[in-house]
Write a structure and sequence with these properties.
Elements lengths: L1 H28 L5 E5 L6 H17 L3 E5 L6 H8 L7 E6 H5 L1 H4 L7 H4 E11 L1 E4 L8 H10 L4 E5 L5 H13 L3 E5 L3 H10 L4 E4 L4 H5 L4 E5 L14 H4 L6 E9 L4 H15 L2 H10 L4 E2 L4 H22 L5
Parallel strand pairs: 1-2, 1-3, 6-7, 6-8
Antiparallel strand pairs: 3-10, 4-10, 4-11, 5-8, 5-9
Helix pairs in contact: 1-12, 2-13
């Protein structure tokens, strides 16, 4: 019996050593080829812009190319599903918005995967607020004028969003309820296409992220309000929606996620290098120029997981309140 016990102890030690060596090897060899960074939105929106700036910086630190791939559709579900089913070796990652993990499960009757259990939170990246804007042909010059105009519009105004169940969609529906106005929703395959549709006049209204800031500054869109708790420093003339409707606040965060099962040493390396990028002043400057950033969002893995759980519960309440469902 003693010999059997000793043999078990020795075998256990061998397996422990083997696992440690494998983990060390995974860290030493990672990455050993190009990394695919999946963006589950169309080009031009905040997730796409953030992915390209992050990819450039992270590739330099990791010593391998980072290839950004746009896999848009179903408010991120198509790209999310691709990553969830990818090999868990750290070479296929997702740069996604909070809506994918915190809103979609409440909105979509059928999900191709469970983002809460099949996607691994790696690192938070940036946070952003939104702009409410109109095509310049809409005869309003202020948020108050817009509300009155929308109340009287016949037929109703048409607004674009980055997809069913997106923050753009939910945020506008909440505004409709609070203001007592009617508008017709047209979903697009990302914030970039929604903004371009508003500029072209396909839709008259759009609630969009910071990536629309250059278009507002250029006069291609007329900014009316922002969705944060305070006014935006770059647009102090724009009121917050909360100034008219207290308690209204809408933010978006972007995060890096991957398939469940990525080895811990690989996660540690990724998290450390992402944190270094977020603290890089040049990263912030480039993100600010694109309009895709207001605040770098640095958290611990536990804080990131807690943020997802908190937002999942909060958006669940909002979805039930607004009554949005997608078949």
């Amino acid at each position: 019996m003693g010999a059997v016990f000793r043999k078990a102890v020795i075998l256990g030690a061998i397996w422990t050593l083997a696992a440690a060596l494998a983990a060390t090897g995974a860290l030493a060899q990672y990455p050993n080829r190009a990394i695919r960074l999946i963006v589950p939105n169309a080009a031009g929106g905040a997730p796409d812009l953030a992915a390209r700036v992050l990819g450039e910086k992270l590739a330099a630190r990791l010593g391998q190319p980072i290839v950004v791939e746009n896999r848009a559709g179903s408010n991120g579900n198509i790209g999310g599903d691709l990553v969830a089913k990818a090999a868990a070796d750290g070479h296929t990652l997702l740069l996604g918005a909070d809506s994918l993990v915190a809103i979609n499960p409440h909105v979509y009757a059928r999900m191709p995967f469970d983002p809460l259990t099949e996607l691994l939170p790696i690192a938070t990246l940036v946070a952003n607020t939104f702009f409410l804007s109109v095509n310049p042909a809409v005869a309003v010059n202020s948020f108050a004028e817009f509300i009155e105009y929308a109340r009287k519009a016949d037929p109703p105004l048409v607004y674009g969003s980055s997809g069913n169940g997106s923050q753009h969609h939910l945020g506008t529906e909440i505004l409709k309820q609070r203001a007592g106005i009617e508008m017709i929703h047209v979903p697009y395959r990302g914030g970039g296409p929604a903004v371009r549709a508003a500029i072209a006049g396909e839709v008259q209204v759009v609630l969009s992220g910071g990536s629309s800031a250059p278009q507002i500054k250029a006069g291609k869109l007329r900014g009316l309000a922002t969705t944060g708790a305070q006014r935006e420093a770059a647009f102090p003339e724009l009121p917050t929606i909360a100034e008219a409707y207290p308690g209204y606040e809408l933010k978006i965060w972007l995060g890096l996620l991957g398939p469940v099962g990525i080895p811990e040493p690989v996660l540690e390396k990724l998290r450390a290098e992402v944190k270094n990028v977020l603290l890089d002043p040049d990263f912030r400057a480039k993100m600010t120029r694109t309009g895709a950033l207001t605040v770098p969002l640095v958290t611990t893995p536990d804080q990131f997981a807690a943020l997802i759980r908190s937002d999942f519960e909060r958006y669940g309440r909002i979805v039930r309140q607004v009554g949005i469902k997608v078949d």
